[in-house]
Amino acid sequence: MDLRLEHASLFVLVLELLLCGLILARIFAARGGRIPFIRRIPGLSAIDEGVGRATEMGRPVLFSLGLGGLDIVTLQALAVLGHVARLAARYASRVIVPVVDAVIFPVTEEVLRDAYAAEGKPELFQPEDVRFLSDQQFAYASGVMGIINRESVASSFLFGSFFAESLILAEAGHQVGAVQVAGTPSTTQIPFFIAACDYTIIGEEYYAASAYLTQEPTFLGSLIGQDWGKIALLATIVIMVGVASLWSLTHGGAMTGFEEKLTGFLQYMPGAAAGR
Amino acid sequence: MSDAITERPEVTAQRRQSRIIYAILAGLMAIFLLFELKLPFLVGPQARGLYEAVEKVPAQKPILLVLNWAPGTYGENYPQTEALIQHFFLARKPFAIFGIDPVGPSLGQEIAARQAERLGRTYGVDWVNIGYRPLQLPMILGMTRDLPGTLKRDAQGTELATLPLMRGVHSARDLGMIIDVTPSATLDIWIQYFHGAVGTPVGYAPTAVMAPEAYPYLQSKQIVGMLAGIKGAAEYAALLQQRPDASLAWKYPPMRAMNAVSIAHVLIVVLIVLGNYQYFTRHRRREEQA
Amino acid sequence: MNLDLAIWALAALSTLAIFSILYRENPVYRLFEHIFIGLATGYGISILWTQVLLPNWWTPMAGDGKWPWIFALVVGLMFYTIYTPRYAWMSRLLMATLMGMSAGIFFQGFARLYIPQLAASFLPLVQPEPPYVLFRNLVIVVTIVTVMTYFFFSFEHRSKVVRGSASLGRWLLMIAFGAIFGSTVMARMALLTYRIWYLLQGRPEIGT
Q: Do A53 and A110 belong to one domain?
């Protein structure tokens, strides 16, 4: 049996241990009292503003968790929902959460119920505000559009995995004059959110959201550990660009030998050799 | 509830403007769809790369044409599929339709059956339709090791091992290429478990939304070529037209569709320029008044 | 009545009903929105049973005698314990297992997808062959470095070098997003083009 098809290589194991080690080290350090610093992320600061506006206007807040199932992206979105729900509970505002996945539905209800209870207002939680629409992309989008228009939401938060329906949702919110804050790791949808929303959280900032909003040591430590991992990868790129440039200088621009040596090293890594 | 809340005047004005723009857009596109115009056309390296890669596939290694699209993206994925299938039939490259979306393979079946009848190609020899299988990791791993054993039958219930096209196919190494026609991010599966594991060449035909994300894969040669949306389909059609044996028939002609899309782009660029001009002149007027 | 023509007419009516939201929210849009949601959900349930549960779970268990598959139902039912505070820990156990599995599978996939791209970024910035490739290599390397700098959270962007690099990274991100936006506009226009084609040319001939 060809184990390359089944298992990761030694290199992947080493890489995994290194990255996990960095993250765990920072988490334990943070839990031990060394709370790390993270810089300000403007889009996340706008969340409070959005909820406040909804309270002033007496209209509800809409929070969409995107099209993902129970995965990391949706869990991040649920963490942000928890923060938004607590703010809304404090100001006695409604939060309407349309949901696309039946597995997420009870989890979402629990997050919302806990948020209202934590603010001492469990009676304000309305179960009908968490609505399972459909697991089909455009059916969900048309349902959310309908909710935005009929409820005339004052603020719209779009956090999670989005695909082609992203601009449909953002435009619907724009048309009713809602303040919109969006965050997604889906690169292809970020341009639409930037064009149609008031604030957009892009790329890695999305994964920093839960740490930034909750300021919990575990989340902060994890974020800083990831930063160290990125620094290690960036250093690798800079060093290897230097090596490649030196090779080009000493071999008159011919990179064949360099690529062969790199391919030889990549043989120890899954799949990489096939690309060259 | 929306009736109870009075719309702001600026929102009403914006809605009126939007309706005019929608009407102009629909009108222009309808004109360009009804009348065939030969506009200048350039074929990009991504489509050409895929075309040449298909030409190089050995005749004894079938191509796995993965159709993961549904009617929602008909406008882009249908002409891509039709272009690819016509190329396979003309160049005599055997292929197998497969899908991890329920509807994709049946849409491919319609195209392949129609083109096969027109070009005199035989089911089981020149093409097969394996049909839909739900996406599960054990199935993908099984396909790489023992494709006929994992998938077992075609969409009509015939054992794959009995079909002449599939007789030489045991594992992923016996496939000439995998081409993924999809509106979703399914490319990763084929790169991870097929190209990454055994080096099977992978081609990609996404909707235009997904195309920019694929450029890193092109740069690192993890995919051999790409058809980016309707433009990719039109480029492929242009390449097919240059073949000496070109006998093409389209249910939804990609080049005429691309003409309509092009005029829409021109309109959008004009509106962007006008909109920015209005924005900056209003801004300057406000500054002068202040 | 000709069935193909009736199907086309229904599809055309549905298209126009959903497009009516462009004018304003109205009962026709609402009706077809609810029909769409209901149909999509019903279709999804039907596919779930006929294509997933029936061939992969029910038939092996009830038809082929593989009785251990019953435990799949038991494990799946554990998820519903989320509604009871006393037994909710069972659902958390299930979710944690799924999360751990997917994290492990994801890491291997990450290595196969992105290590080759990392290797492809080791580009020479001096005397490449052919010479025009130098500009391309420079753009790629500068973009990677500056965009990664923008996404560092553990320190304030105070120093001129870091601030400048992060700022350039942000500009390059916006340029990339503009290109993605343009691609997606093309995708939307392509879908609209097909809808207009379908309304104009897509109807079957009467009598066929």
A: yes
**What's the alpha-carbon Rg for chain A, to the nearest Å?**
23
Q: Which domain holds residue A206?
A: 42-215
- CATH code, domain carrying B179: 3.40.50
Where does residue A66 fall: left (phi above 0), alpha (psi -120 to 50 degrees), or beta otherwise? left
A194 and A253 in a single domain? The answer is: no
C182 vs chain B: nearest CA distance in angstroms? 9
Chain B residues whose beta carbon lies within 8 Å of the beta carbon of residue A188: 209-210, 212-213
Write the pLDDT tens digit of every residue in A117-172: 999 999 989 999 999 998 888 889 989 999 998 899 999 999 999 987 888 899 99
8 Å CB contact between A113 and A95:
no
- pLDDT of C43-96, one tens digit each? 888 888 887 788 778 988 998 888 999 999 998 898 888 888 888 899 888 888
Same-domain status, A222 and A210 = no
Sheet architecture: strand order including A199-202:
A130-132, A95-99, A61-66, A155-161, A179-184, A199-202
Q: Which of B136, B212, B220 sits opposite C117 (nearest CB)?
A: B220
Best residue of B3, B5, B15, B276 to probe chain A, by most A CBs closer than 10 Å: B5
Whole-angstrom Cα distance, residue B75 to residue B88? 21
Token pair 């039946």: residue: A102
ipTM given for this complex:
0.80
In angstroms, the Cα distances linking A248 to C129, C132, C142 are 8, 14, 18
